[in-house]
Amino acid sequence: MKKKYVLLVLAIIFSANLFAQKKYNVIVYTNEGENFWLTLNGIKQNEEASTNVKVTDLKAQNYAVKVIFENQQEPLEKTLWLPENSSEITYRIKKKRNGKLVMRLFSAVPIQESVIQKEDKSVVKYTPVERTPSSNTVSVTTTTKTVTAGGSKKKGNGKSGSISVNIGDNSFGLNVNVNDGEDEDESSEEITITKTVTTTTTSEPEEIGVVYVEEDSCQPIETGDFNRAKQSISSKTFSDTKLRVAKQIIDNNCFNAGQVKSLMSLFTFEDEKLDIAKYAYNKTTDKENYYKVNDAFEFEMTIGDLQDYIKTQE
Prior knowledge:
CATH topology of the largest domain: Immunoglobulin-like
Strand content: 25-35%
Number of domains: 3
CATH architecture of the largest domain: Sandwich
Largest sheet: 5 strands, mixed
CATH class of the largest domain: Mainly Beta
Distance between the termini: 66 Å
Number of helices: 6
């Protein structure tokens, strides 16, 4: 009997992992005033051109993005590479010194920490296919997974049980059949996992909307949190571990130039300081003051390397 319960638990864990999926939200916005349409993998996401678009329920880790401007200027194309964990990623469209528009990463936060949108704002749910009207249809897909354990027996008494679990819009059932052998120690047990997914398409297209994202939505990390972050980095013994922790902190926060310089001071070697300076550049809110980080370097050649990198980001 103990083996039956072990298999039942394993089956439930297997089923839970089967449905666990990463999710991403992507926000693209501009303060330059140009309305645009956002396409993902060739599919237009917003029906009306806007300066702010948010797409939710993305599940893949990379998408081909194209921003098509209403004023017919040259579109922007980019491949989005999303992080390992579920996140809300914000990209900003801005003008370079030569007047051309570029799309740059602005912020990235775990999806559970993303800002709750106001009720009067709507979002675009990711559409992987063209939005065309269709009649009401319901389709049901069933997938079965069978796990068998045990051995042969001469005689046995059959026992069975079942359990059903609902996860969101999905449901799945577990059927357990156990034959306990009378003359041998081994028993044969079979667990069948059945997943049933029901999808419905309506005759009306999905409602499309946009979300306004404030220019200053990513503020520099608070002083208290920043000091704790520095203590966490400093507590690590090995330089590669310190670098890995620092980058993890940078991924989930924004900084001012002075804070970036302070982070660089936690490292001994010039190449490590340069690595941090490059990694934090696109998470810095006052890039016009980024010259401050130069004081953390020992060699002028390293300053030149950083300036060359910054030019590639503009």
